[in-house]
């Protein structure tokens, strides 16, 4: 990975110009890397080719680059639909969550959440869809069983591109009473200023 690629970016504003015009529902994002070709390649290898070496590398990069995190009361993985979970064999967000909890003692001691974020229906894969299609595809995609009144919640995912998935999950958690919803992921779509390096 060259100096211009896959550098940690501790910046909560790394969205493309179109996404910046959309109102985010979630409280904030921690994404230490730009979603560049190197990160995209490793994610594809891990998620779709079941390349465990790529997965371990991504988890290590993410864990090592993640600095001080906002205080939260619960850390949950973004759920997959059961069909996609069965086909893929694992949920990458669960793997990332477990890697983070092993590395951050304060998070590992949090009590188990009394609620569950769930996929309410199977959405079409987001790859290849524009921002409007992604939002429409994810409308009502998540539900919450139980209450999360006044909780600060971190939702773990692999990447934030348009923010549609993050917004849909955050909306469900806010509807269940959450006070804050943070998205913690490996990488985020770069701002136009960073796209010359990708």
TrEMBL record:
<dbReference type="InterPro" id="IPR029057">
    <property type="entry name" value="PRTase-like"/>
</dbReference>
<protein>
    <submittedName>
        <fullName>Amidophosphoribosyltransferase</fullName>
    </submittedName>
</protein>
<dbReference type="InterPro" id="IPR051910">
    <property type="entry name" value="ComF/GntX_DNA_util-trans"/>
</dbReference>
């Amino acid at each position: 990975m060259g100096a211009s690629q896959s550098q940690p970016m501790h910046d909560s504003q790394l969205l493309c110009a179109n996404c910046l015009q959309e109102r985010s529902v979630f409280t904030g994002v921690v994404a230490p890397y730009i979603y560049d070709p190197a990160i995209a390649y490793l994610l594809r290898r891990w998620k779709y080719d079941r390349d465990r070496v790529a997965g371990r590398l991504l988890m290590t990069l993410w864990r090592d680059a993640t600095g001080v995190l906002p205080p939260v009361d619960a850390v949950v993985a973004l759920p997959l639909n059961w069909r996609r979970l069965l086909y893929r064999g694992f949920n990458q967000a669960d793997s990332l969550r477990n890697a983070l909890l092993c590395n951050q003692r304060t998070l590992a001691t949090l009590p188990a959440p009394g609620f569950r974020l769930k996929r309410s229906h199977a959405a079409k894969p987001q790859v290849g869809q524009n921002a409007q299609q992604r939002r429409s595809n994810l409308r009502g995609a998540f539900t919450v069983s139980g209450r999360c009144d006044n909780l600060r919640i971190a939702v773990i995912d692999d990447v934030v591109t348009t923010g549609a998935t993050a917004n849909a999950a955050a909306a469900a958690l806010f509807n269940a009473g959450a006070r804050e919803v943070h998205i913690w992921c490996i990488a985020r779509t770069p701002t136009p200023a960073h796209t010359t390096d990708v």
